[in-house]
Amino acid sequence: MTQYLDFEKPLAEIEGKAEELRALACTSEGMDVTSEAAALDAKAAALLEDLYKDLTPWRKCQVARHPARPHCKDYIKALFTEYTPLAGDRNFADDHAVMGGLARLGDRPVMVIGHEKGSDTKSRIERNFGMARPEGYRKAIRLMDMADRFNLPVVTLVDTPGAYPGKGAEERGQSEAIARATETCLRIGVPLVSVIIGEGGSGGAVAFATGNRVAMLEHSIYSVISPEGCASILWKDAEKMREAAEALRLTAQDLKKLGVVDRVIPEPKGGAHRDAGAAIASVGEAIEALLQEMDGQDRAKLISDRRRKYLDMGKTGLAA
Predict the structure, then answer these.
(1) Which terminus of the chain, N or C, has fewer Cβ atoms within 10 Å?
(2) What was the pLDDT predicted at 278?
(3) Where in the chain are the domains?
């Protein structure tokens, strides 16, 4: 069953009527609703295109958080072969909010790491809604170091509202683990491609996304804080999240103009959740293209280019 967002309610009514007509035809012999249903389908398709033609930042936040949007596990299953998961940080525990391991992307061996939110109540609780604890970041550090040792490109798939802010996480050194993971991204001498597939929240996302190349899906978001959190701090009112979303410049299009991301990956009409297969295929093509851009580069160049990318960030603006 399609899950509709608030701004999609008119679309839900039209698509619902088309389904009702088809269901009625199935139970009534001799009833032909083909033309009526086709007219409703055409009306729905036109409305869908209109709704997604120029989404506001807040609506993009809603799309990026859609529960049916493909998650890290879906991308790994569809794009990578010979995936061998690696678990644990060799210090405290295995964090299920972070998954990763050795795999092949086409003929290319890689290390893939990503946040996994879960797809139902049980898995979301198990995955802590994609909010990693310190052991998750330390697992990522271990896997990136392993990739560096064996000269394997690293692919990270970012989809988190932010690092987990709980008491236990803070006691085990959450901020230090995030900082070390970010430092590891900058230090390794292999290509690092990061893709924001949903939410890129705060340092919890930066710890995976400090790459040579950073791409974002068209309706994903990437920001230092959630719009609700920003609104609570600046206006003392979480209901100001729409204004905060505008001010944060968190959309893929704004971040491309600012030089924070290198590529915006188009999504199927209506968002990745409406055609997961097409969205995943587009991400796979983008990752392969970005990795090819770095073929033949030595360790020193990969490291220096990556560092220069972040030192130069902010020199371009929205007016550029």
Answers:
(1) N
(2) 96
(3) 6-53, 61-311
Q: Which residues contact 286 (CB under 8 A, 6 or more apart)?
A: 195, 215, 263, 265
Closest by Cα among 247, 250, 221 to 235? 247
Written in H, E and C, the secondary structure of the chain is: CCCCCHHHHHHHHHHHHHHHHHHHHHHCCCCCCHHHHHHHHHHHHHHHHHHHHCCCHHHHHHHHCCCCCCCHHHHHHHHCEEEEECCCCCCCCCCCCEEEEEEEECCEEEEEEEECCCCCHHHHHHCHHHCCCHHHHHHHHHHHHHHHHCCCCEEEEEEECCCCCCHHHHHCCHHHHHHHHHHHHHHCCCCEEEEEEEEEEHHHHHHHHCCCEEEEECCCEEECCCHHHHHHHHCCCHHHHHHHHHHHCCEHHHHHHHCCCCEEECCCCCCHHHCHHHHHHHHHHHHHHHHHHCCCCCHHHHHHHHHHHHHCCCCCCCCC
**What does DSSP say about strands 98-105 and 81-85: parallel, antiparallel, or unpaired?**
antiparallel
Burial class (CB in 10 A: 0-12, 13-18, 19+), 272: buried
At 316 the pLDDT is 54
In 3D space, the residue among 251, 188, 207, 192 whose CA is nearest the CA of residue 60 turns out to be: 251
Distance CA 205, CA 157 (A): 9
Per-residue pLDDT tens digits for 62-97: 999 999 999 999 999 999 999 999 999 999 999 999
Our CA dihedral for 267, 269, 270, 276, rounded to 10 degrees, sits at -50
44: left (phi over 0), alpha (psi -120 to 50) or beta: alpha
Residue that is written with structure tokens 């997604």 in the block: 52
Class of domain 61-311: alpha beta
Residue 318: pLDDT band (50, 70, 90) is very low
Cα–Cα distance for residue pair 195/267, rounded to 1 Å: 13
Nearest by Cα to 22 from 37, 10, 11, 9: 37
